[in-house]
Structure formats: C-alpha cells, structure tokens
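Retry 2 of 3 after timeout on previous attempt. Resubmitting structure tokens to design endpoint.
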C-alpha cells in the first residue's frame, strides 16, 4: 500500500479524523540509519504522529516532535511539513542495550518531548510534552488535554517496518443534535486492533469501525520521505560563521565538508567556493 494520509468526516457532526499508514517513507529513513529494534519501532510511531498532528494544522510550514533525555536514547526527532514530507533521526548511546518492547520513557531517562511549529510565515512555537502515560499516544493526548486544545485522541502502532495511526478530534461547535456522538465514536475506535491499522487499507479500517455511521472520505494524500537540506542552505550556514572562520577551516582541512545527519548527503566547499560565496555576499 502507498504511504497515505486519509482524512474523514462524520455527517452533520463536529468530529473529524485522520488515518495515516506509512511503510515506504520509513524504509527510506531506516535504509540510511541502523537503529536497535525498540528505537526503530518508536521512531516509526513518532513519524506517524508527526503526520497526524501536521494534518490538524492550517499552516504552511513544518511540525517536529523531538524527544530528548539522559538515558540510552539521547535524542529522537521526527518532522513533517504541509506537503506531507517526512524525515527523522535518532541518537543512541554507543553502549545502549534495552528490551525490544521498551517505551520511550524507559529509553530517555528524565526525558521530555517537544512539539515545534515552524510556519513559513509567522512566529515559531514550542510546547513541552510531559512523558505522562505509557506510550507516545498517551503523552500527546495528555498534552492536548492540559493545553486546553480541542478534545483529541490518538491511536499509534508500529512494528519497525510499518507505522500507522488514527486521530479523532472534536471541533468547536454550538450544538450537536447527537449528544452521545463523541463518546460513541471513541468507544467504537477503541476496538481497533494494531494489526488492523498496520495491515488493512484505510478504507477497510474505517468501514470496520464506523460502518453504522455516515462517513465521508475526501481523496487521500500521499506521504513521502524528503530532506530539506540543500547546498544553498549549507552555504547560508557557512556565511553565518563568517569568512575568517571558513578560511581557517580551509587552511586546516583543505576543504569544508558538511554532512546532513538526516539523509547522509555531504556538501563539499573548496577555497574557490568560499571565495565566491563571500564575494557574492559583499555585493
């Protein structure tokens, strides 16, 4: 199945939902990095969650989820933009050894999760997510509840190869003729099995859960791996450290090599590149 984000609505209802299913984009991430099984599973969940949360926002830009701590797992980050392009990375201690079923809280030790919104036009926002609960879905649900945002529930699962998730959200409304709708939909959704989210198509999952409800499905949208690094962006980073520093590096190393941790692309700048870079800047 292709990697998709499928939005869905319930007729005459303030409740909306998203379902995300990933495999190819995760393969693109994991062919570039070798992680222990637990880290790969949790990173797949984090990527899935980033797509689900980005889908709830009305902005052009990107959303990232970054977990950091003092344990065997130093850092884990997943990022998704409004074009549903994802990338992710993790940093694991060299002597790390942990169970395949370890939770994110187990691996981080005194950890936290940070949500960052970076609109292309507008102010950057960060929110701290306490690791309260037993799963990434729990952490994010508690964040939504405590920040007084819209009532939101998440279901996340991953096996290290595939990642899938489902989100339900109650939108602002004045009246809803069906007062029991939200608790009823939550009760129905609680019956979903991890293997169904991973192995059935989005349409099959939604029919299995809501065949007695009136559900509308717009066209699904593709999700793909893409890195935002570029030679132009790397050049901007070099300009920010200044010509003197760049020339010192050239003297010591012969050229400047900058490596993208996400996709492993390497950008090489020699003396003529640096000369041209700062000549252009001066003009």
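Retry 2 succeeded. Sequence:
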């Amino acid at each position: 199945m292709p990697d998709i984000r499928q939005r869905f609505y319930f007729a005459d209802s303030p409740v909306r939902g998203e379902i995300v299913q990933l495999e190819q984009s995760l393969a693109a991430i994991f062919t570039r990095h070798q992680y222990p099984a637990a880290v790969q599973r949790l990173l797949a969940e984090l990527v899935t969650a980033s797509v689900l949360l980005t889908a709830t926002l009305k902005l052009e830009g990107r959303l990232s989820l970054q977990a950091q701590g003092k344990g065997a797992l130093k850092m884990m980050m997943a990022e998704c933009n409004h074009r549903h392009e994802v990338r992710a990375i993790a940093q694991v201690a060299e002597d790390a050894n942990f169970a395949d079923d370890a939770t994110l809280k187990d691996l981080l030790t005194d950890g936290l999760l940070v949500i960052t919104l970076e609109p292309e036009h507008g102010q950057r926002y960060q929110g701290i997510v306490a690791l309260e609960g037993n799963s990434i879905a729990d952490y994010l649900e508690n964040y939504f509840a405590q920040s007084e945002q819209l009532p939101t529930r998440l279901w996340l699962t991953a096996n290290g190869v595939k990642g899938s998730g489902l989100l339900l959200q109650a939108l602002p409304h004045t009246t809803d003729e069906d007062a029991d709708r939200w608790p009823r939909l939550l009760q129905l959704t609680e019956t979903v099995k991890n293997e169904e989210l991973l192995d059935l198509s989005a349409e099959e999952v939604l029919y299995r859960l809501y065949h007695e409800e009136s559900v509308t499905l717009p066209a699904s949208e593709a999700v793909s791996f893409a890195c935002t690094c570029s030679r132009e962006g790397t050049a901007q980073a070099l300009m920010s450290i200044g010509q003197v520093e760049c020339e010192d590096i050239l003297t010591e190393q012969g050229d400047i090599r900058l490596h993208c941790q996400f996709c492993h692309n390497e950008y090489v700048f020699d003396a003529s590149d640096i000369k041209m870079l700062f000549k252009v800047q001066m003009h």
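Attempt log closed. The chain has a mean pLDDT of 87.
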